[in-house]
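Exercise 4. Each item below gives a protein and its sequence. For each, produce the structure-token representation.

Item: DUF4249 domain-containing protein (Runella rosea).
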Amino acid sequence: MKTLLSLIAVVVSLVMLDGCVLPFTPPEVTAADRFLVIDGFLNTGGKDSSRITLTYTQLVSNKNSFTPELRAQVIVEGDKGSTFLFTEIGKGLYRLAPRTFNLAENFRIRVKTTGKKEFLSDYTTPKQTPPIDSITYKIAADRSSLQININTHDPLNKTRFYRWKFEETWEYNMPLYSLYEIKNNAIIDRLQNINTCWRTETPSTILLGSTIKLTQDVIRDAPITHIPASAGKLLIKYSIIVKQFGLTQEGYEYWNALAKTTETTGGLFDSQPSQITGNIKCTTNSQELVFGFFSAGVPQEKRIFLSPALGIPQSCQPLDTLSIADAIKAQSFLLTQYWADGARVPEYITGDPGCGDCRTKGGNTTRPSFWP
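Answer:
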């Protein structure tokens, strides 16, 4: 096999609590080769869809988004003969609609790429996940940040290995309000409120927890995310939904081995790739490296809302006051009208879109359906 000369760059932080929690990000490489990354979870609970993502490792120096594998065939197979075909959604994402599974079956994933390569995982046993007990938060004494933690336990002491994913949404306002806009070289009332937006992010950080060294299967205050007040997420209202997955020991060991390898050496050893490449192999070329771990089970989730009023609101001032003709000529961002003494027509106060259009900050004006 061609040597993997350089190493996967993964940021690792090791925090010792009641269990071991390891956060890190997806693999990047410094060699020119690219390798398939299969991130897959089969949701056997019957309520939510299952999703598989197919992307490729990329150079650390490449700041673009990861390259997806498109038009692949993704199939989940049961060891009692059942098969389920995933539907391509786009951007490397493949989806299987919610359905009932035979929980007496073990499952594996088979991926066939447009490059005529086939990848096959080992069979995995669906893993039950205990409920999340609580999501808690703590504000720093100087109000400079907020820490979000999670608590869970398995009274049967059977889970022991955990993985968490989270999605965060926050509401924010702009300091200046725009009442008018220019369309077709005319000034009209702005019908859409672009002062308030909601932004959603799904961080790529992966979080692991283990209670294998503890008498009781209890996770207390495992860190999920740390939010600086300066991030602008905590001024009005913030929400986080955390999904909790029970892992098999093999699944946990895969992620743990990857974390430890990158922590101690800065990347992957090319001398022992089989120890960090998971439970998926390339069947068309046994020497080809592939990353990822396929697992199955019933996850749990919990959402909370916070209004901590942390941070300093953005400060902006209007830019100028222009006549109708000058505003249209400059295609200015309009705030409101200004009537000078004795004027027969108004002038328009203009501003920076970055101070009045919330969409410039990455959000959108559609209120989420779950928002209170």
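Check: Residues 249-265 form the longest helix (17 residues).
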